[in-house]
Amino acid sequence: MLTLRNVTKTFNRGTVNEKPALTGVNLHLAAGDFVTVIGGNGAGKSTLLNMIAGVFPLDLGTIELDGEDVSRLSEHQRAKNLGRVFQDPMRGTAADMQIVENLALARRRGEGRGLSWGTSREEREEYARQLATLDLGLESRLSSKVGLLSGGQRQALTLLMATLKKPKLLLLDEHTAALDPKTAAKVLELTGRVVEEHRLTTLMVTHNMNDAIRLGNRLIMMHEGNVIFDVSGDKKSQLRVGDLLQKFEEVSGGELANDRMLLS
């Protein structure tokens, strides 16, 4: 479903602020893979997702999505095939619009727009059924402004919007990092359920090593812009946090001095 070949990106090239972000990443995801991505700050995790989404142009390499070379396509051209949930709950929704209006926009992603009424009665009923699966009481608040929702409610809504059209690839960029532990656990449980139900190919960046081990069928670790560890199947399910710390030290040649990951 996704193939990256020698994907390279350097920011501020030729200046004193030059920063290599990705250094020839090669990665292949089969359809249905749920891959968790861990690594220290500056390892290239978010840059990897942004490059796949077309936020930044490639320096070198190619990106293929479902057999199509999307390397030179713009962000909006790729958007019809991607679902994204960001770390900031405010980024995935339009705060001044109603819940039903946000869902209608998500449903029409990549389609032409006409002058007919925004939503039909049948469509609103379908949205209510979808919202009921979140178990947050939002199905009775279709007309509420999204800006009135809590961070957890907005993130759950964003996840629903991102998967409403069954994207070819779902990108989750630390989508629970800004939530309190109880709410984060709820959103993660919902994430696992939605990905499994729709068999979505998924890349999930996280700093929480326990979550990275528990969720998905595959785990990759990044360091200094490249993948330094890739494990799947039974080997992944048998991992412990201590194993990841040891593996990082073995492959990178140094200790994982990242408080955020250690505290997670």
Number of strands: 10
What is the approximate shape? globular
Q: What are the secondary-structure elements, in order, as H or E?
A: EEEHEEHEHHHEHEHEEHHH
CATH superfamily: P-loop containing nucleotide triphosphate hydrolases
Major β-sheet annotation = 6 strands, mixed
CA distance, first residue to last residue: 30 Å
Beta-strand residue percentage = 15-25%
Enumerate the strands of the largest sheet in spatial order, edge to edge or round the barrel: 6-7-8-3-9-10
**Unreliable segments (pLDDT under 50, ≥5 consecutive)?**
none
Report the CATH architecture.
3-Layer(aba) Sandwich
Number of helices: 10
Structure class: alpha/beta
The pLDDT mean sits at 88
- Integer tally of domains: 1
In the CATH hierarchy, the third-tier topology is known as Rossmann fold
Characterise the protein shown here.
There is one protein chain. The chain has helices at about 45-55, 75-80, 100-105, 120-130, 150-165, 180-200, 210-215, 235, 240-250, 260-264, and strands at about 1-10, 20-30, 35-40, 60-65, 70, 80-85, 170-175, 200-205, 220-225, 225-230. The chain has about 260 residues and is α/β, with parallel strands linked by helices. It has a single domain (about 1-95, about 165-264), classed as 3-Layer(aba) Sandwich (Rossmann fold). The strands form two sheets. A six-stranded mixed sheet has the order 6-7-8-3-9-10, sandwiched between helices. A four-stranded antiparallel sheet has the order 2-1-4-5, with helices on one face. Helix 5 (about 150-165) runs parallel beside helix 6 (about 180-200). The longest helix is centred in the last third of the chain and has 18 residues, at about 180-200.
